Amino acid sequence: MSGVGGHLALREAMVATARRMNTSGLNQGTSGNLSQRVEGGFLLTPSGMNYETMTPEDLVLMRFDGSHEGHRKPSTEWQLHRDLLQARPEVGAVLHSHSMFSTTLACLRRGIPAFHYMVSAAGGTDVRCAEYATFGTPELARNMMVALEGRKACLLANHGLVAVGADLPAAFKLAVEVETLAAMYWRALQLGEPVLLDDAEMERVFQQFRGYGQ
């Protein structure tokens, strides 16, 4: 794999996206992490580093066998990113955050059901909550993969949110959408149980979205 120079544009885009995670409210401090597929592996944000002072050279170049190069330690969640990128060739970028409302629901071990048609943006009729496992472990990565089957986003019990996309902008956009849905669902729950859309209606939504946009 080529060095920093060969991935400079991607590294710069990752730094910018990581900073947007904080300014958008998706993330706080040094929590959360971001990865981008490159030839033979992926770029990953370093462990416990402030995004405001992070530079393109601080990103870690990782291979699928778990080895890495660079002058920083990789995020403790590298297995989560590795397993997703290895198993899902359509995924180009993975975003993990501790966003407020998604994490609130995750701490209740509650996913997001079809209370709103935009839940379909995550690829199905709900956003599942993965079973709990300690952060940075193979068990967490396995539980996440189960929750993401047929989906592009999931919650991690007592932890946070994972969203994937073909590229960085797509992963970021979906993470913002899921966090918005989590906020709306949380607010609706303050008044009672929201009325859910049935599978037939969600299928009509999927059909509508196939021709949506310019």
Automatic annotation (TrEMBL):
Keywords: Lyase, Metal-binding. InterPro entries: Aldolase_class_II_sugar_metab, Aldolase_II/adducin_N, Aldolase_II/adducin_N_sf. GO terms for cellular component: cytosol. Residues 12-186 form the Class II aldolase/adducin N-terminal domain. GO terms for biological process: pentose catabolic process. GO terms for molecular function: aldehyde-lyase activity; metal ion binding. Gene3D superfamilies: Class II aldolase/adducin N-terminal domain (3.40.225.10). This is Class II aldolase.
